[in-house]
Amino acid sequence: MATVVGQPSSEPSGGPPRAPDSSGSARAALAARESPRRRLVRLLILLIAIGVLVKGWMVTDIDLGKLANAPNAAPILKSLVTPDVVSRDIVQVELDVPVVVGAGSNGPATASAQTGQTFKVEPGSPVPGGAVAFDGTGFAPNATGQIRVQNPSRGIDALWLRVTTDDTGSFHADSGWSDYSVFPPDIYHFHLTINAPGATHISDTFVNSLSRIGETILLALMGTVFGVLISAPLSFLGARNLMGGSAVGQAIYWIVRLIFTITRSIEVLILGVIMVVIVGIGSYAGVLAIVVHSVGSLGKLYSEAIEGIEPGPVEAIAATGANRLATVLYGVVPQVVPTFLSVTIYWWDHNVRMSTVLGLVGGGGIGFLLIQYMNLLQFNQAATVLWMIVIVVTLLDYASAAIRSRLV
What we know:
Layout: H1 23-33, H2 36-59, H3 64-68, H4 73-80, E1 86-100, E2 109-112, E3 118-122, E4 131-137, E5 144-151, E6 156-164, E7 171-176, E8 187-202, H5 204-237, H6 240-243, H7 247-265, H8 268-279, H9 283-307, H10 311-319, H11 324-358, H12 366-375, H13 379-407
Antiparallel strand pairs: 1-8, 2-3, 3-4, 4-7, 5-6, 5-8
Helix pairs in contact: 4-13, 5-9, 5-11, 5-13, 7-9, 8-9, 9-11, 10-11, 11-13, 12-13
């Protein structure tokens, strides 16, 4: 019996034939057809982009070494973790003991305060080369102080010793008396000053910052309210779908849109500078700056919300013979109210952040306090202001999100 040997099949057994994979060959053909001119253009674009970045690096004077070796970086970073929130009073106790040099008395000289502290110097008549002992009782534990020797008639006022009280509020120190060439016979005074930590309380910086942050929130609120009152009516005139029916409507549309563009194109800090020149330094200038900027920004957002409404309800109301005002009130307003509320709450949150920096140019609020502390290099106090801004803005962000979720 003959055996027929066939040609080996290129198709896999047990399956349908597959079309040859042409993606790889297509890419290869495309790469082959790419002209040298196109590759040159891509190379030129890449070189131009690199050149622009290099030029930008040079023009902006970027120097990472300055950032690493900045002399004020360490104090500022340290102040950020030690803001001036709590302060402690310093209770100062002063006692004065007169001693008579050359009087020959060996008895101690003492002084007492009405609050129970005593200061004793022995002997009360020091002699050249002799020892002098200083004792104090009744002071605050672990308090620091100093003893000065004074003689106003001879112009003497010098630091003699530094002392620290123990756990019981007492101290003892020994010293020697110089010869008569330095301290000739006369009446001298040993003046003791002890500084003890007193009660702990909220710092003045924190209280001032709290007052200013409240002013900042109200500044943003007033600016937002007046911005809404002006921009909301104008937004209906700046909506293309409501004003596109006639040449007059088109003209009004473009004029309102131009107003929105101009007022929002000027940065709020620049507006703050302009308003400070017009009405003077204070929160009123900040409110006006926020109002002007909000009119443009909110007007644009409101108008775009109106342009995105469903036309069906509007057409249905217009078909009943309702006039233009009734059509807008019953066909447009109910559709845009949720969006208007969401945008307004968000923009108030945005204006709070903006109002924190308006004080830098004299627009009132907490920024005015911040720039004062920075100019005086009071970094701990400035850190208090910065942390308060961060906390308040964060809380308002969460609050506005919660309000939007309930109302919208």
